[in-house]
């Protein structure tokens, strides 16, 4: 059985059309069709329902994808045995969007420089979605916000703690957290995120009532809205991000300060453990380098 054909059927499950799957693999539409037909002839089963537009995988096609993913994992691990120093293979990594701005890019760049034969794929999504994708073997690992409860069946490694702050326009006269939150319209950080839920739990526990006007997905957008006087907000301070600008008033949330824990998760039986461990080392090095330049505590503090 041709491994390239198996990679093609996996790509079909991940992209909406044959064309998109082919582009991801560097194949033409006709080459994708040839791979599928070859597998169907070899296995004597129908993998794709061609009556649908665009064509979709049949139940047997979906079942084959799960087996193919495991074969790809094992194949990559066998290739990795060729060298103890240089990592090869592929790693599909999920990342919460807030970490894609400052923390992840330099870490991935360093990882690629150290291991040029390592192929990386990145997918941005919410923590709970990425966690489920790790469980389903859709992705190999993910950088997510740690939830309130345990993540059963997953290996969880801390990357860092991000302080959670109250953000207000610098012109706001109030000097305490409760006064700021009570006096101004409030901008929620998306409560579908685990960080947003952490913030909501804190406000409920402290019996702090806010007047919500917006719910925003992006930390950068929250900072811009607050600077322009739309309201106040509570948000994590992104790892490796530059200091807040002077037109923001920043107060710590809670005493001691509430923090978001950023973690790297993968499956406990993940055959790409060496790759995820190497990624964690680069993330830690990136954090430590930023901390040294800015005289801050290092990673995982």
Describe this structure in words.
The chain is an alpha/beta fold and 301 residues long. Among the domains are: 1-81, Arc Repressor Mutant, subunit A (Orthogonal Bundle); 162-260, 3-Layer(aba) Sandwich (D-Maltodextrin-Binding Protein, domain 2), CATH 3.40.190. It is built from 10 helices and 11 strands. Strands 3, 4, 5, 6, 7, 8, 9, 10 and 11 form a 9-stranded mixed beta sheet that branches. The protein has a two-stranded antiparallel sheet with strand order 1-2. Helix 5 links the parallel strand 3 (89-95) and strand 4. Helix 1 (3-14) crosses helix 2 (18-25) and helix 2 (18-25) crosses helix 3. The N and C termini lie far apart (49 Å). 36% of the residues are buried. The model has no long low-confidence stretch (mean pLDDT 90).
Tell me how many strands there are.
11
- State the end-to-end CA separation: 49 Å
Q: Point out poorly predicted stretches.
A: none
Q: Which CATH class of the domain at 162-260 applies here?
A: Alpha Beta
* CATH homology superfamily of the domain at 162-260: Periplasmic binding protein-like II
Can you tell me the CATH topology of the domain at 162-260?
D-Maltodextrin-Binding Protein, domain 2
> Averaged pLDDT, please?
90
CATH architecture of the domain at 162-260: 3-Layer(aba) Sandwich
The Rg value, from CA coordinates, equals: 23 Å
What percent of residues adopt helix (DSSP H or I)?
A: 40-55%
Structural class: alpha/beta
């Amino acid at each position: 059985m041709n491994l390239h054909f198996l990679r093609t059927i996996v790509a079909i499950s991940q992209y909406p059309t044959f064309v998109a799957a082919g582009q991801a693999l560097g194949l033409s539409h006709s080459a994708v069709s040839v791979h599928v037909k070859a597998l169907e002839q070899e296995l004597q089963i129908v993998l794709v329902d061609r009556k649908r537009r665009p064509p979709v995988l049949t139940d047997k096609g979906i079942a084959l994808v799960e087996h193919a993913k495991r074969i790809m994992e094992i194949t990559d691990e066998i290739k990795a045995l060729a060298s103890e120093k240089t990592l090869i293979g592929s790693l599909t990594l999920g990342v919460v969007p807030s970490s894609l701005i400052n923390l992840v890019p330099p870490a991935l760049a360093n990882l690629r420089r150290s291991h040029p034969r390592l192929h990386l794929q990145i997918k941005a999504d919410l923590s709970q979605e990425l966690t489920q994708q790790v469980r389903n073997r859709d992705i190999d690992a993910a950088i997510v916000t740690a939830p309130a409860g345990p993540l059963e069946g997953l290996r969880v490694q801390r990357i860092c703690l991000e302080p959670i702050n109250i953000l207000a326009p610098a012109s706001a006269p109030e000097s305490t957290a409760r006064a700021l939150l009570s006096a101004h319209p409030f901008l929620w950080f998306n409560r579908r995120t685990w960080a947003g839920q952490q913030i909501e739990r804190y406000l409920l526990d402290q019996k702090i009532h806010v007047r919500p006007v917006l719910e925003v997905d992006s930390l950068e957008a929250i900072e811009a809205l607050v600077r322009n006087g739309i309201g106040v907000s509570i948000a994590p301070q992104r790892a490796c991000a530059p200091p807040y600008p002077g037109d923001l008033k920043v107060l710590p949330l809670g005493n001691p300060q509430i923090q978001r824990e950023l973690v790297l998760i993968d499956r406990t039986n993940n055959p790409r453990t060496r790759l995820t461990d190497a990624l964690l080392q680069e993330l830690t090095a990136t954090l430590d380098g930023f901390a040294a330049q800015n005289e801050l505590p290092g990673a995982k503090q």
